[in-house]
Design brief:
Layout: H1 16-47, H2 50-75, H3 80-103, H4 105-112, H5 115-142, H6 148-177, H7 179-197, H8 214-226, H9 229-244, H10 251-258, H11 262-286, H12 293-313, H13 317-345, H14 351-380, H15 382-403, H16 405-408
Helix pairs in contact: 1-2, 1-6, 1-7, 1-11, 2-5, 2-8, 2-14, 3-4, 3-5, 3-7, 5-14, 6-7, 6-11, 6-13, 8-14, 9-12, 9-13, 9-14, 9-15, 10-11, 11-13, 12-13, 12-15, 14-15
Amino acid sequence: MKLLFSGEAFAVMRVKNFRYFLFYRIFMTMASLMQSVIVGWQIYDLSHNVLWLGFIGLAEVIPQVSISLFAGHYIDLWNRRKIVNYTTLLLILASVVLLIYSLNASYFSARYGIIPIFTAIFLSGLARGILGPAQVALMGQLVPRSLYANAATWNSANWQVAAVLGPAIGGMIYGFSGIVPAYSTVVGMYSLSFFMVMFIKIGRHEVIASEEGVFTRIRSGIRFVFDTPELLGAFTLDMFAVLFGGAVAMLPVFASDILNIGPQGLGMLRACPAIGAALMAVVLMFRPPMRNTGRLLFFCVSGFGLCMIGFGLSKSFILSGILLILSGAFDNVSVVIRGTILQLFTPDYMRGRVASVNSIFIGSSNELGAFESGVTAKLMGLVTSVVFGGIMTLVVVFTTVKVNKPLRKLSLKNKI
């Protein structure tokens, strides 16, 4: 009880810039996940083809991976707040494209098919390839080293709250009011996030003078990750877990064809992992994963894989929701651990480049996982593909436990 009222769990919230950063994150995340739900249902409603749902991920990951490493180089040299602010304009532009398309969908679909939708998805992927590492690097600049774990927990909790509200609100607005009000809300949310970043006031971050060219600097960031087994292990573990455990991309099919719950139910299913993650975030605020960190990471990724297997086999809306809630709780422990490892093990002058490698490992794996889920669902069948993904997640955990001793023995308490 003493810890509960000591204020340690809320220490980072005393940092004014960090509070503005959290407001930015919650609006931006809500908008992104609302848009994801709306686009997923819209594409499936137009095509009734699970493979197109996989192509949503592919259309986003190609620009994201293509630009991420270059973005990391410039994030270490330029003003990180301005990079985040201006890149958010790309997200606003993409959502405006989707809104205009939906205002007269019959006209645009007859002339252009679904090309405008995938153009907007491409723009969103381009923006996220920059924003992913930029946000990580900016957050490390806003708080002192002693609060990195606390900041990572609050950042994750903030994301999860947005991930509960975003899909649920997006599905409800789409289901009850239609697609135009839904996309209009997305544009509004992105606009709010743009203005929140403008309130952050920071000085110039540390820049190490160097005559190295852009490709040499990019290689040095990649080399740093591969020379740090704790970073490499955490990144790789999450990458393959997300890649093979990408059942979320198939939720429109589960909602439409298996559970028969419509777009409103889809929004609720999309919110379930975030509900579990938000509940776990509250636990982690007061009991941060600082002891036996490596073993805890392996345990939670294994739990995530088992939840995906159970979800694939479930035909009950309630059971499916419970399993997704548990998967979110397990996944959030992994997110907090990985985020804390990145901040603690990476010097500030290299944080943009290392975060860009993380963005490729983790961020792109969400979209590649969506593509993998679409392809395997087409080849194996929907249920078999999800169960296969969960089994492969367990295989990845077992392999990483065997080959990465430093991560297995890691305790973050010794690194602060």
